[in-house]
Design a protein that fits this description.
The chain is of the alpha+beta class. It has 24 helices and 30 strands. The strands form seven sheets. Strands 9, 15, 16, 17, 18, 20, 21, 22, 23 and 26 form a ten-stranded antiparallel sheet that branches. A six-stranded parallel sheet has the order 4-3-2-5-6-7. The chain has a four-stranded antiparallel sheet with strand order 10-11-12-13, with helices on one face.
Amino acid sequence: MATIKQIINPELYDAILFDLDGVVTRTADTHAKAWKKLFDEYLKEKSDSDDYKPFDIKNDYIRYVDGKPRYKGVESFISSRSIDIPYGSVHDAPDKETICGLGNRKNQFFSDLLKKEGVRVYESTVDLIRELRKNGFKTAIVSSSKNCSPVLKAAEIEALFDARVDGVVSEELGLTGKPEPDIFLEAAKRLDADVNRCVVVEDAFSGVEAGKKGGFGMVIGVNRKDQAQDLKQKGAHVVVEDLSEIESGLEKETSWDQTYMGFDPEDEGRREAMCAIGNGYFVTRGAAPEANADYVHYPGTYLAGGYNRLKTKVAGRMVENEDLVNLPNWLCFNFRILGEEWFQLKDVKILFYRQSLIIKKGILNRTICFRDRNNRETRICQHSFVHGDQMHRAALKTIITPMNWEGEIEICSALDGRVTNQGVERYRDLGTQHLDLVDSRHIDEKSMILKMRTNQSCLDIAMGARTKIFLKNNIAAIESVPADKPGGYIARHFIVNISRGDDLTVEKLVCIYTSRDTGISECLLEVENSITNDVESFDTLLESHVTAWELLWRKFDVTLELDNKDIERDTQRIIRLYIFHLLQSSSVHSLDIDVGMPARGWHGEGYRGHIFWDEMIIFPFLNYRAHQITRTLLMYRYRRLEEARRAARKAGYKGAMYPWQSGSSGREETQQMHLNPESGRWLQDHTHLQRHVNNAIVYNIWQYFQITHDIEFLSFYGGEIIIEIARFWASIATYNKELNRYEIFGVMGPDEYHESYPGADKPGLNNNVYTNVMVMFVMEQALNLQHVIPEQDWDCLRKKLEIEDRELEIFQKMSKRMKLVFHGDGILSQFEGYDKLKEFDWAGYKKKYGNIQRVDRILEKEGDSANNYKLCKQALPCWSNF
């Protein structure tokens, strides 16, 4: 009959604490032999005859020494034989008759046996540990032995544990040995795990008692010595003959974590975007701190509204593009064994890799275990965050642990201002160098500052970093040397001597200020002041950061209840991940900044960080939870009203014509030329004809007002925008007397596959149904203003904008008389003439190309055009809003 396995449930436990001797390694027998040799020789020396009672390797070992610290074991057994000798000193020679002397002699015997017999492991235990780690559990080795580290090294299993607490650590920290729980509690602390969510695995009575005393979630007793009942009596919740009877639960998945196991170079770019961390002021991609921009990695930090323009000659003409600027890289951190190459993932064998975004706390964690070309194994744990409350702060902590080596290690902590905009492949032929060096200098042995300036918009960006190094949890007094490079790279190098198994912790605290910030004198001065007078540590900053996110989730969390719990968890995680990234692009920090809501957040260079109309999807979520943010984002549009008026006048229209793509000033930022990566050709870009962005702005204003009843905003800001956009539509529309309908020619709808008619000389389509329907909505709200805002405010608005009765009459007609085009079967047509386009060979193209998501690019490559076919890039949006 098959044995029913005990499963360690990931919903209940986070970490597993393993005893060494008798649980992981078979060195318990080696210890027992060393103890017997010690005590038999000593007892024989103390006895007057040969009839002395020898050390019982079974009963005496279990009762007096098993699991206990070495000197405690000596003391316990000697007392049982009524022998009284001095305690002595840990430095006593092995031949000295003291407790410590005998203990040191035992250790000498053990070392000799270890060299002679080697170290054998319990394969079932090692298999279980590997499975536990694969499934997301943390593991620690906990032992009273001072030989723990050399035993792990000899067995080549050091990399299987995230923490080690042994006799050496106990002595350093003054911990009481088993059966007290001190060493297990220290291990849980080092794993950052709650005691009640830890499992203790022990074979010794003293270890089981320690687990019970410590209040650990579960204590597993391993019955190596036919003492199952005794282990239960001592406090074991479960007793097994072997750890093959224990099974790891599946990888712990929660709706609060986005976790990636293993390193996948092809997916790294997507992971960096998904794991971006920010606070509404700036966002940093979840890139590896040791990485430079290449075909795998792309470190990037972006300031909300941090734009710059560059000109490039393309296809024989000069074009200007405005980009969201990639700011100096503050993550820069690396290490190497002195005199060797700097650490890079591609140069080592990865034994374990886990990257996890803790959505609930806004923390990005990364754990790597690797083996280098010289068979040295190292563990790296990294934690980073952009502060949720202190908008100018960010931090990175790195813990480096040599698992089977020791020596000198060189640390590099830097700020790199030499970065360029290379994040989007098809933009790389355009201007990419946005930053110029203004100043950089070292403040002291730990601190440095850097100032860069955008070369067109003249935005100053200042960064400061303070690097502190800790060895064995104590701050290390280590000298550093500058290692700067021309062009805006400032760095400090630290050299540290590190021992096997020791944790080297490096904290890098960063602050960022710009020339547009309020409440400061000058950005570099503020950075220097912050770095010089900073009293924060990584842990204190982290604590307040986690609190900030806790308060955000109280307001913004959305919970689901579904019958299928697996679907519920996955869907819940996706929703929370979306909310997380939304709050990193628009937060309370946005209230004091002149910014809009970009299509892809402030997470990268896609769409150049421009503002389109995507805010229409986001505002309903914000309106009910933090309408102050919505108002701030709507004020971005109001501040650019004059630019929209200029655009309308330049095009020959009245009112205000907002751009399809907006950036710093509100001018039209849609690219004039775009690259088709399929054909390699640069083509005219006509997407600026998506005038329906103006309708979206009015819709957003009206939805905001309906939810908040913010009369002040509508009276002084929103109403003015609505009237001016209504004027624009009244001027662009053409009245068809025959149909008694208003028509709009020469625009694009939301479907970007169609920008003109087949064979047409000029771009634009007629009577796009989405545009025309939304124009009726705009006119209706323009008319409603006089009934909603106070009469005196309406009078002021009419006088300020010189609104005539004749205009209101046109608004009234257009609110009811826009031309809508139908197919012959009575279904609304996307635009006039859509029904006359050719049918597309969907099956043929799918068979030929597989992925035809960008069929427009495929057709252009073939010398054809999506304008010729009944295609739709995106369904008509927002009908559900009515």
